[in-house]
Structures are given as C-alpha cells and as structure tokens.
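Work Package 3 (structural annotation) set out to generate three-dimensional models for the target panel prioritized at the project kickoff. During this period the team completed the workflow that converts sequence records into discrete structure tokens, so that structures can be stored uniformly alongside our sequence database. As a representative example, we reproduce one entry of 196 residues exactly as it appears in the project archive.
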Amino acid sequence: MSVVFLCVGAAKAGTTWLHRQLSEHPECHFRTIKELHYFDAVDAGRLEKQLDHHRAMQAEMKSRLSGWGRRPNHVQAARLQDRADWIGVLASGRENTEGYLNYLNTGAGQARVVGEMTPAYALLSEARLAKMAQIASDVRILFLMRDPVERLWSHVRMMAGRRDPQGKVNRGRTGAHLKAHASRRRNADRQALRLC
C-alpha cells in the first residue's frame, strides 16, 4: 500500500506548485483534481453540493471540447476520467473513505505516494484530522504556511486579476472580498496554528 499524503494549510501558500512538482515525480501519483474538498464536505454535509459542482465542471469540460470539434488529448482525457471517477465517489452521498482511497490509488501503479492537497482541511476539527490520519496504515499530513501578509497580498492580486464580464477589474468586489477575507483569515489562522 502506498503512503497517503494529504497537504493542508493556508491558501496561496504554494500548494499548486507542490502539487505540480509531486505529480511529475515518478514515485508519486496525484490525480488531476488538486483540491477534492472531501473531508470538509463530509463534515459540513455538503457532498451533494460537491457532486453538483463536479458534474457542472465535467459538463463544461465536455462542452468546451465538443466546441473545438476534436477529441481530447491525453491530458484532457485524464482530466475527464478523473472527474468522472470522483463523481462516482461522491454519488454515494455519504462518507466513503474506501471510495476516496480507491480514487487516490487508481492508476498509481508502483507509485510509493498517493495523495491530494486541499488547504481548507487545515480548518477541520482536531477530531476530523485525527480520523484522517487513520484512513490508511501510513498517512502523512503536511501543513504549508506562508507569511500572512504575503499570502493576503497574493490573494488580493489574484482577485484583482479576475475581471467582470466587460473585462474590467471589479474593484468593489475585490475590496469587499479583502475586508471579508481579512476577518475570516484572522480566525482561520488562529485555528490552523493549533496544529503546529
């Protein structure tokens, strides 16, 4: 059985970079969906919402591909298959740790490490984190941190880069998001630091 690697931690702390690096490592297997939001959805009773989200993403991917009038390349095919497999896990509508682990391990071959990265897991209860640490015989949980001011600034830049339908930066939305984000992060940072 492979080591199950779960990366939790702060948003904008480098999880996308780490996911890319580990996905390319020959001894690691990470599916194309980086943030599964499985355990937080289970705890919040939002599996149905996650299922709807992934079905919508799958439909959008298929629509885009058909609009291009061509068959998916191997990367696009892998993304479609990963999405379909994850929808299958969520479709049970209940906590399904066996299905979750099967999803992580599908296609792993001889990889020594499988896993996923959902920063939001850092906000889960200690009881849930303890359960996560026991889903397999060898589970490693990595908590990524980043200077809070740098992280917030990175997030603001990302939000500012999102444009409204007319292609303009939505300054009002960005400012409102910044205020709400600062309030949430104060509490989230305190909660996450309890893990250290």
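The CA atoms of residues 89 and 96 lie 7 Å apart.
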